[in-house]
Design goal:
Helix 6 links the parallel strand 7 and strand 8. The protein has helices at residues 47-54, 77-87, 103-113, 120-128, 144-156, 174-191, 202-205, 229-241; strands at 3-14, 21-32, 36-40, 62-67, 70-71, 88-91, 162-166, 194-198, 210-215, 218-224. The chain has a single domain (3-241), classed as P-loop containing nucleotide triphosphate hydrolases (Rossmann fold, 3-Layer(aba) Sandwich), CATH 3.40.50. The strands form two sheets. The chain has a six-stranded mixed beta sheet with strand order 6-7-8-3-9-10, with helices on both faces. It has a four-stranded antiparallel beta sheet with strand order 2-1-4-5, with helices on one face. The radius of gyration is 18 Å and the shape is globular. The chain is of the alpha/beta class. The protein binds adenosine-5'-triphosphate and magnesium ion. Magnesium ion binds at residues 47-48, 93, 166. Residues 14-15, 21, 23, 41, 43-49, 93 line the site of adenosine-5'-triphosphate.
Length: 242
């Protein structure tokens, strides 16, 4: 079986001794190539921490993170950065847009860093996300939902093999959230990229094929969604209460 992501015995905590919290505790996880799956979990359960570890933005205390055939936990920072830029599309919970660059420039940033100056793909994505009239706006001139869509376009502009998305629908209303899920599903089918998303919303989660529940520092359970938000909601509540 080909795996996009494989994690073994992962541990990550924060703070000095005496004041330390262990967030990820001996976690195992795998994501098959070409799949679209979700991680759900309560606020503070460590979802963002886990995605940041997968993206190589945080270093684990222990354990292995293998992306494709690369054990990124062993790479130095420079190698991690280049690997991430070429292979991973990241959508952050807080967008991380550059305030002095326009919408289009923000989307093109990953290409410019690789010395590719082709704005065709950026324009296509901005159009697809309903931002054609916002191309030359700065982030401060955009709404929260518009900024989130810019961050999504930026994550997709390099056609990454893996997309890691942290609550990408958190600032969208439900029609826009639904549209984004349809877009991600389409992208997953058409390009074969693997998508791992964090979400609290059962409606959004039902767009994926499988839900993993993060609880007490490990993936406590996983279940198939069967495209049904009610099933997702019931099984998720049972998992976090149980
Ligand atoms: N850099 C850090 N230093 C200290 N504690 C941290 C740090 N980053 C995260 N934490 C703590 O780790 C825990 C998990 O945080 P994380 O952001 O991963 O949660 P989350 O599941 O993404 O929550 P939310 O759904 O609210 O976004 C929290 O208790 C948080 O306070
Ligand atoms: Mg988070």
């Amino acid at each position: 079986m080909n795996l996009a992501i494989e994690i073994k015995g992962l541990r990550k905590g924060f703070g000095a001794e005496g004041n330390r919290i262990e967030v990820i505790k001996n976690l195992d996880f795998s994501l098959k190539n070409g799949s679209f799956e979700i991680i759900m979990g309560q606020s503070g359960s460590g979802k963002s921490t886990l995605l940041h570890l997968m993206a190589g933005l945080l270093s684990p205390d222990e354990g292995e993170i293998i992306i494709g055939n690369n054990e990124i936990s062993k790479h130095n920072d420079e190698k991690k950065t280049i690997f991430r830029r070429k292979n991973i599309g990241l959508i952050f919970q807080d967008f991380n847009l550059i305030p002095t660059l326009t919408a289009e420039e923000n989307v093109m940033l990953p290409l410019l860093l690789d010395r590719k100056n082709d704005n065709k793909k950026a324009k296509e994505l901005l159009e697809l996300l309903g931002l054609r009239d916002r191309v030359h706006h700065l982030p401060s001139q955009l709404s929260g939902g518009e900024r989130q869509r810019i961050a999504i376009a930026r994550a997709l502009v390099t056609n990454p093999a893996i997309v890691l998305a942290d609550e990408p629908t958190g600032n969208l209303d439900s029609p826009a959230a639904h549209e984004l899920c349809t877009l991600l599903k389409k992208l997953n089918k058409e390009t074969g990229c693997s998508i791992l998303m964090v979400s609290h919303d059962p409606v959004v989660s039902a767009a994926a094929s499988k839900v993993h529940v993060l609880k007490d520092g490990i993936i406590a359970t996983a279940f198939a969604t069967e495209d049904n938000p009610h099933i997702v909601s019931e099984r998720y509540l049972a998992a976090i209460e149980g």
